[in-house]
Design a protein that fits this description.
Blueprint lengths: L2 H42 L4 H15 L5 H22 L3
Helix pairs in contact: 1-2, 2-3
């Protein structure tokens, strides 16, 4: 195998890695936007159940694509908090 073909293969791999990173960053930004919307709703006096359920669903979908244990822990904490808030909204008084 020639050196140029090895370098070409690395460039393709690097391009794939960069595309994967961009996609992960985009997904992370999407989740942060959802969290920011929830924060604004809470400050305004209430958050909708639908918004919390959308966040929980997005987190469940993203979890399968994450390998970092610390990030999985953070996702679990956010998902638990969303579940608690949903339970608060749906409980009968």
């Amino acid at each position: 195998m020639s050196v140029s073909s090895i370098l070409s293969a690395q460039e393709v791999s690097d391009d794939g890695d960069q595309a994967a990173r961009r996609q992960l960053v985009h997904r992370g930004e999407d989740l942060l936007d959802k969290l920011d919307n929830i924060r604004r709703d809470i400050l305004a006096g209430g958050v909708s159940r639908q918004r919390l359920e959308n966040l929980a669903q997005a987190l469940r979908q993203r979890r399968t694509q994450v390998s970092d244990p610390r990030l999985i822990e953070i996702i679990d904490e956010i998902e638990l908090r969303a579940a608690v808030e949903i339970a608060k909204l749906t409980r009968s008084i």
